[in-house]
Amino acid sequence: MSGQVTMVKGHSRRGGGWALSGLAWIVGILFVLPVLWMLLTSFHSEENAAKNPPDIAAPLTLDGYRAFFDTGPWPSIANSLTASILSTALVILLAFPAAYALSIRPVKKWTDVLFFFLSTKMLPVVAGLLPIYLFAQSVGFLDNIWLLIILYTSMNLPIAVWMLRSFLSEVPVEILEAASVDGASLTRTLRSVVAPVVTPGIASAALICFIFSWNELLFARVLTGTVAQTAPVFLTGFVTSQGLFLAKVCAASIVVSLPVLIAGFAAQDKLVQGLSLGAVK
Q1: Does residue 276 register a pLDDT over 60?
Q2: Which domain of life is it from (predicted)?
């Protein structure tokens, strides 16, 4: 009798596992389907891309990509790469010792400090747009890539501190005590002892900060012109009074999304390890 009950429970668990797996696949397909549709549309001509209902079996062409590259997107893409990479590097350099102080060597009232970091993300971005614009205008910093680097660093720093603190709280205290006995300084402890242990966490925090910086539009749209224009701002230029050219816009969106996709695929193992490390207590 007990064997039959065990078999029924085993079948029900397997059935539940299959149901959850099927649901996960459905949700994944729903998320990926718009991207695949955009990719397919980017290889259609403007005439076929504008058809309603769309023609899936329409002939493929590279005209959309040729039209996009003819507009000269490279300066904008270079600006986005510069702002995203430099701001991410600054965020990690600043957030790592801050997270160390809030986790392994906690300061007084560290919960208040974390709440302050979190409260900075509660303010609507548009509320700080006008003061920042007036300040940048007064110091001659408009249309300057360094203004975006500073802004992206300050915007992503609270997120990185929160993430790295959860990762650093998992570092065994015994490792730090051994480093202290060996006479290692704080800088050497952070660089040679703590950093290798939380490398997945650093990679996941850096990837998220890079994505947020790359996708930011509002500040870049208002504070830049032609010199420091970023890739998202460049994409908004395709919406003109002449209409929206779907094939060209889809091709531009695919090209602009490639750096984020490449970074995500390159760091996916570290990202999964880092998120798991920060979630396990």
Answers
A1: no
A2: Bacteria
Give me the residues paired with residue 243 across strands.
240
- What is the third-level CATH fold of 72-279? MetI-like fold (1.10.3720)
| pTM across the whole model | 0.82
Residues 6+ apart with CB under 8 A from 87: 148, 149, 150, 152, 153, 156, 209, 213
For residue 260, the model assigns a pLDDT of 87
Torsion of CA 53, 54, 55, 56, to 10 degrees: -130
Instruction: Please give the pLDDT value at position 19.
Output: 80
Q: What is the full DSSP assignment across the chain?
A: -HHHHHHHHHHHHHHHHHHHHHHHHHHHHHHHHHHHHHHHHHTS-HHHHT-SS--TTPPP-SHHHHHHHHT--HHHHHHHHHHHHHHHHHHHHHHHHHHHHHHTSPPTTHHHHHHHHHHTTTS-GGGGHHHHHHHHHHTT-TT-HHHHHHHHHHHHHHHHHHHHHHHHTTS-HHHHHHHHHTT--HHHIIIIIIHHHTHHHHHHHHHHHHHHHHH--HHHHHH--SSS--HHHHHHTT-BTTB--HHHHHHHHHHHHHHHHHHHHHTHHHHHHHHHHHH--
Distance CA(169)–CA(65), nearest Å, equals 47
Q: Which of 90, 117, 87 is nearest to 101 (CA)?
A: 117
- Count CB-CB contacts under 10 A for residue 2: 6
**Location of each CATH 1.10.3720.10 domain in the chain:** 72-279
- pLDDT reading at 200 higher than 60: yes
pLDDT of 281 above 50: no
